Amino acid sequence: IIFFALPSYPENGVVEMCGGNVRPRARTLLRWDQLTVGLVVMVNYNIEIPEERGFWFDAEITALNEISRTNKEVRIRILLGGPGDVIPDCKLLFLDEIYQIEKTGAHSLSAVDGQFKRKSGPECKHCKTDPESECRFCSCCVCGGKQDAHMQLLCDECNMAFHIYCLNPPLATIPDDEDWYCPTCKNDTSEVVKAGEKLKASKKKAKMPSAHTESQRDWGKGMACVGRTKECTIVPSNHYGPVPGVPVGTAWKFRVQVSEAGVHRPHVGGIHGRSNDGSYSLVLAGGFEDEVDRGDEFTYTGSGGRDLSGNKRIGEHSFDQTLTHYNRALALNCDAPINDKDGAESRNWRAGKPVRVVRSSKGRRISKYAPEEGNRYDGIYKVVKYWPEKGKCGFLVWRYLLRRDDLEPAPWTPEGLARIQTLGLAVQYPPGYVEAMANKTKKEANARPGSSRSKKHPGRGRPRLQPLKKKVKEEEDEEEEEEEEKPMEGTDQSQSNGSQETEVCKESTEPRAKRQKMEEAFQLTEQQQSLIKEDQPNRKNWDEAMGHLKEGPNFLRKVEQTFMCVCCQELAYQPITTVCTHNVCKTCLQRSFRAEVYTCPACRHDLGKDYVMVLNKTLQLLLDQFFPGYSKGR
Q1: Which end of the chain is less packed: N or C, by CB atoms within 10 Å?
Q2: Where is this region: Disordered (predicted)?
Q3: Cα–Cα nearest to 329, from 238, 242, 231
Q4: How many Å apart are CA 28 and CA 42, to the nearest integer?
Q5: CA atoms within 13 A on the CB side of 213
Q6: Mean per-residue pLDDT, 558-566
Q7: How far apart are CA 49 and CA 190, in angstroms?
Q8: What CATH number is given for 251-428 in this structure?
């Protein structure tokens, strides 16, 4: 057993080691002509950054390349100890510092032989471990001084050093605590939310101008500011045409729900599109006084021209609109060359790119075709022409004439109303919204003057009831002026109006879609029926899905759910039908096999390493027909 100390690492103290693990110190530098392939030498190499100086390792020379007299290359493999523990194919940087490994029995070194101290990489790459220079990385991060190392504290979180007298406030002595954290990493106990306390504003929100304003205006904090809880994946975001499973007449309470359905992706913006591609959808909400809605066609005003500086939601017209950004995107849908000066009229308006149109209830002040509540999908329109003109505001605006081109009947026609009735389409509310509004109505009724008398004397007078739907409508008109609505908190309150109010609330809050029975079934083409019979591996899955044909658009939702890939949680693309009748995307299954997982992702059935992935072309063709365009985004 040998005892020795390392001068460079005094913190290790005296180290005890067996004699078999100790060898004579390397002292002989090898020249180029002394190097041979297979020779084991000691070299300097940086594993993390090969271009810099690092630590010393034993290495075996694997290649010697003499490109020219001054340009030479040595390839090595680093030996880390174990028989298979090596780092192969490393390029040596310091060719003049290759040491021969001394064998046991070599003469010992003395002071006469001089110092054989090898160069190693600096402990600090910023100051190169210069004791005279200040460094805030290897020394005190406040003053950078390297003096008084015994008076420095090391943060247990960021690993930075601090002199105790450089702290604010300074410390008199080194604390006795085992753990110490610098002021940056320390948790402020005043910011910790305890049980029953209100959530405190973050530092970012505390610095916002809105945190120090004297305005009492409520800017919503609601539905125009929330993020999507789900995203439409059956079609890409740049999809033209209708979204599969969304019939004309489908209505949603808030714009964020329209975005989640994939019909119109922006939460607030009126036009969705790209200036180098075209427009995919728009919302007709009567935001401009120039707009005229005639049902099957309407004139639409482009975006821009308003000063929205200072985080304004809306503003007055202050400059001319230009045919750029979203305005240019909508103009690209017209079947005519783009003209940013005079506009253009389509040669064949039906040949233009389709635009999904959503009408908002806020447009009822200018149009009788707008829905009474929420946002309604009204089908496909085409751009007939676009032109610039001076608007009522006195500035130049871009106008667009759009005409309806959809096989499904418009929702305001008798045929469209009958179809909406048949499909049982009603305004879709966010989960828990109806219950929260009912609780708010009861809470306001309890807080109304005279409510306490009604509790004590239920026989005096008759309580005045206000239907929930009317209440919801009033609040919608007030809050949607800013297109930001405040979600209500659902808290249980005692009923003050007896059983009569309970029956009214139940009747008004019950979704109409549940009370109406769907009668229009989903119609399969002859080709689709033939392909379903041909897809024998998925016969059981198709039998289950076809049981929902009578539910109309819900059939497509069932198909999407049945043939969803268990890996990516999206509709299977290039599906592989396994022997256990599960459908997985080809790329997902290949990724699983690359990870050496050779089982079915759904049921863990052993597929085997040599499993042949056969693409189910019949199923892919069916999915392309049911969900046209979904494969473009994959």
Answers
A1: N
A2: 442-520
A3: 238
A4: 10
A5: 9
A6: 92
A7: 43
A8: 2.30.280.10
Measured CA distances, 538 to 347, 476, 535, 544, 619 (Å) = 47, 47, 6, 10, 8
Question: β-strands 251-252, 427-428: how paired?
Answer: parallel
Taking each helix axis from N to C end, the angle separating 617-626 and 526-534, rounded to the nearest 10 degrees, works out to 150
Residue 411 class from Cβ within 10 Å (0-12 exposed, 13-18 middle, 19+ buried)?
A: buried
Q: What is the pLDDT of residues 590-602, one digit of tens each?
A: 999 999 999 999 9
Q: 100 — phi, psi (to 5°)?
A: -80, 140
Structure tokens at 271: 């036009």
The 3-class SS string of 167-212 reads: CCCCCCCCCCCCCCCCCCCCCCHHHCCCCCCCCCCCHHHHCCHHHC
The Cα-based distances of 66 to 35, 45, 74, 94 in angstroms read 12, 20, 9, 15
Question: What is 526-633's CATH topology?
Answer: Herpes Virus-1 (3.30.40)
Q: Considering Cα of 313, then 318, then 319, then 321, what sign does the dihedral take?
A: positive
Class of domain 2-107: mainly beta
Q: For residue 17, give every residue at least 6 positions away whose Cβ sits within 8 Å of its Cβ, in sequence order, or none.
A: 1, 2, 4
**Residue 54: per-residue pLDDT:** 84
* Sequence-separated (6 or more) residues with CB below 8 Å from residue 215: none
Write down the mean pLDDT value for the chain: 81
CA pair distance 539, 619, nearest whole angstrom: 11
**Alpha-carbon gap, residue 487 to 436, rounded angstroms:** 8
Q: Do residues 234 and 244 touch, judged by C-beta distance below 8 A?
A: yes
Give Cα 462 distance to the centre of its chain.
53
C-alpha–C-alpha distance, residues 12 and 191, integer Å:
41
Q: Is the pLDDT of residue 444 over 80?
A: yes
Task: Give the mean pLDDT of 343-357.
Answer: 94
Q: Where are the domains of the chain?
A: 2-107, 129-185, 251-428, 526-633
Which pLDDT band holds residue 472 (cuts at 50, 70, 90)? very low
414 pLDDT above the threshold of 90:
yes
CA distance 214 to 57: 68
Q: Which two tokens stand for residue 174?
A: 């080194």
Q: How buried is residue 150: exposed, middle or buried, by Cβ count under 10 Å (0-12/13-18/19+)?
A: exposed
Residues 571/233, Cβ–Cβ less than 8 Å: yes
- When pLDDT is cut at 50, 70 and 90, the band that residue 577 belongs to is very high
pLDDT of 484 over the 80 cut: no
pTM comes to: 0.54
Q: Angle at Cα 253 formed by Cα 252 and Cα 257, nearest 5°?
A: 60
Reply yes or no on whether the pLDDT at 246 is more than 70. Answer: yes
Tell me how far CA of residue 265 lies from CA of 223, 243, 287, 356, 631, in angstroms.
14, 12, 18, 11, 19
For the chain, first and last CA: distance in Å?
66
**Predicted pLDDT of residue 16:** 82
Per-residue pLDDT band at 196 (split at 50, 70, 90)? confident
Residue 469 pLDDT > 50 = no
Q: Tens digits of per-residue pLDDT, 44-102?
A: 998 888 888 888 899 999 999 988 888 899 999 999 877 778 888 899 988 888 999 88
Q: Which H/E stretch holds residue 360? A: strand 355-360
Domain 129-185, second-level architecture: 2-Layer Sandwich (3.30)
- The reply to whether 526-633 shares the fold of 251-428 is no
CA gap 451, 439 in Å, rounded: 16
